[in-house]
Amino acid sequence: MLLGMVISEVKNREIELRRDAHDDDIVDVIRKGIKKRRESVEMYRKGSRDDLADKEQREVASLEAYLPAQLDPEIIRAAVREAIEAGAANAGAVMAKVMPMFKGKVDGGSINAVVREELAKG
Fold first, then answer.
1. CA distance 19 to 59
2. Which of 2, 22, 83, 85 measures 20 to 30 Å from 16, CA to CA?
3. Model-wide pTM > 0.90
4. Do 54 and 93 have their domain in common?
């Protein structure tokens, strides 16, 4: 059922793009699916529906298996520091410089966490 939904979302993405989906498009669909499920986990936990939260968490783990390997966090941290040293003074400016380097390789939430840590240091 889970993979059927992903395939359906990829087909919808192809219709939206009016072309066959590329690897980056498929990774993007999977990441969005993971993000939705993580949000659901949080809401189910707040509503004391641990059974549904556990189901969503299992789906997250299943989908993560289809993503490319994550980069070493130190590589991200180095890019963030470089952007800050180049004059990016706020999270939005740093994200604008760093995100294009890691598109499709790392989710934005992970990068955002590193950006906030680095900005808090300086």
1. 28
2. 2
3. no
4. no
* Single residue among 19, 35, 64 that ends a domain in this structure: 64
Provide the domain limits for residue 53.
Answer: 2-64
Which DSSP string corresponds to 47-58? Answer: TT-HHHHHHHHH
Contact (Cβ atoms closer than 8 angstroms) between residue 83 and residue 94: yes
Give the whole-angstrom CA distance, residue 21 versus residue 3: 16
- Is the CB of residue 101 less than 8 Å from the CB of residue 65? no
Output the CA torsion sign for 27, 116, 60, 11: negative
Query: What is the rounded CA–CA span in Å between residue 31 and residue 47?
Result: 24
CB of 32 closer than 8 Å to CB of 13: no
Length of the chain: 122
What residue has token string 């059927």? 4
Coil/strand/helix, residue 107:
coil
